[in-house]
Amino acid sequence: MTLTVVEPATGRAMAEIPEATPEDVDRAVERAGSAFRAWRDVAPSDRARLLLRLADAIEAELEDLAVLEARNAGHPIASARGEIGMVAATFRYFAGGVERHLGDTIPVAGGVAMTFREPLGVVGLITPWNFPLPIASWKLAPALAAGNCAILKPAELTPLSAIELERIALEAGIPEGVLQVLAGPGPTVGQRLVEHPGVAKIAFTGSTRVGAGIQRAAAGTIKRVTLELGGKSANVVFADADLEAAAAAAPGAVFDNAGQDCCARSRILVQRSAVDRFLELLEPAVQAFTVGDPLGADVAMGPLISAAHRDRVASFVPDDAPVAFRGTAPEGDGFWFPPTVLCPVDPASPAAREEIFGPVVAVVPFDDEADAIAKANDSIYGLSGSIWTRDGGKALRVARRIESGVLSINSNSSVRVSTPFGGFKQSGIGRELGPHAMEAYSELKTVYYATGA
Ligand code: NAD
């Protein structure tokens, strides 16, 4: 069986690759189990050095990887270059963590207790199509740094960069079996990884629906799970904000990666007295958000990932939708959709409540600070968000009250290699990146040493 990989900007096939099967999962788990016995005992300084070599090797192939990701995932080439740079930075950051993965010594009666952070063994990593290689690296780098062996199952629509990564890792000296990639369907290959008794943990990024199924299936073998799921983040704009700056940043906050971003601020909550002025400023910023060929110069947004996904996104903009204004998108082949601003949106409507995962944003007015917090929190999700105001105290008060894992004040920034990332509520369980990420790939062991009285 083979898997046909499609280029979303043209709608045409760009590669045909072998499709993995559940039996391949069984073989990969066996291979990873053997590799683990040696990998766990590699001296920390050597393991760190190998991860640094992998980071260098990724950087050496940055341009080719960026073009591959731009073609397969439809990302503008400048964004794809930044993403591959982040992948290298992620391996470098966690290489630095290998020798700082410390335990404690705890004085106790009659001796001393010490703690060790032991690797879990074989971990299964399941990733989505929207940021294929960065999301894989957020899992792989801490997993390998902590001494685990990993089996990565990329999304069916975007497996190509992960397959390249496996080759690059081998060439950089990562031992065989430590990092394996299996490209295949979620319900068969992914499911087998989740149920396999030889897999100690699943780290998953994807939809809340599939994440819930993974949590249920993982219960059978008491697997550890980290879940990075959906979002419906709020961009809260107070009337006392720098409205020019907020409006200039708003298109990037939601239309980046064509809105196929779990951190997309797909609800803009604007204080009622500022709505008209904000929309006046937002319209030219949206018109200037150029949509086109991901490999073209000065393109801010590419196509959606597939025709089926474009149809789903379009269903949130029926004929009677309150479209305030739209940008433009190319005609013809490729899965194009224009940036679309809806206003005013009923907070109870699907456009205000569901994760659209496309370039459609709902503008919802609010009255005061309490109303802003209530509306921001009126969601099953809690992943990201922004707060725009010139009042520092208010910014922090609101940030403390919004139920969300990552917030930025007067900015859209969501993800940094050195800070924790993850969600509240149905946006997930656990955190990736930052100083604590390796803990999620290790078990804490306590050893008591009786010294005698
Ligand atoms: P998806 O849930 O459809 O698929 C994600 C992965 O799970 C794919 O590799 C898929 O093959 C696999 N899968 C599907 N069924 C499975 C099963 N039964 N068992 C095991 N694996 C299975 O998600 P998607 O459409 O690829 O990605 C979009 C979603 O990902 C959005 O909801 C988005 O918010 C979310 N996302 C979250 C984050 C985050 O960090 N919180 C980041 C990016 C994307």
Summed up, what is this model?
One of its GO terms (molecular function) is oxidoreductase activity, acting on the aldehyde or oxo group of donors, NAD or NADP as acceptor. Keywords: Oxidoreductase. By secondary structure, the chain is of the alpha/beta class.
Helices and strands in order:
Layout: E1 2-7, E2 12-18, H1 22-39, H2 44-60, H3 62-73, H4 77-98, E3 105-108, E4 111-119, E5 122-126, H5 132-145, E6 149-153, H6 160-171, E7 179-181, H7 186-195, E8 201-205, H8 208-219, E9 224-228, E10 234-237, H9 243-255, E11 267-271, H10 275-287, H11 307-314, E12 323-326, E13 340-342, H12 350-353, E14 360-366, H13 369-377, E15 381-382, E16 385-388, H14 392-401, E17 408-409, E18 424-425, E19 428-429, E20 442-450
Helix pairs in contact: 1-7, 2-4, 3-4, 4-5, 9-10
The chain binds nicotinamide-adenine-dinucleotide.
Nicotinamide-adenine-dinucleotide binds next to helix 7 and helix 8.
